[in-house]
Specification:
About 50% of the residues lie in helices and about 5% in strands. It is mainly α.
Length: about 90
């Protein structure tokens, strides 16, 4: 029995097989067998989604936004943070 993964099928004993060159796997397929589908990964959490958005700007860019806000009396950094929290709620 084989199960699909992201890259190659995996046998019951946990070994990955090259589907193009493994004779045992090719024989198994030729007998009409099909591998089990790959597991569906869980949906990302809101923390993971937010972290991905936060990482679009480097720490230096974020500190630059905070510094400019202090000098200019603006709220660019806070507005950016709020936008992420509105787009990806808890």
């Amino acid at each position: 029995m084989y199960k699909l993964t992201k890259q190659w099928p995996q046998s019951d004993d946990g070994l990955f097989v090259n589907p193009e060159t493994n004779p045992e796997y090719l024989q198994w397929l030729s007998e009409g067998n099909t591998p089990e589908p790959a597991d569906i990964p869980p949906a990302p959490t809101y923390q993971q989604l937010r972290a991905a958005e936060y990482n679009l700007k480097s720490t230096g860019e974020q500190f630059g936004m905070m510094f400019d806000d202090q000098i200019n009396g603006t709220t660019t950094w806070i507005d950016w943070q709020d936008g992420i929290k509105l787009a990806i709620p808890k």
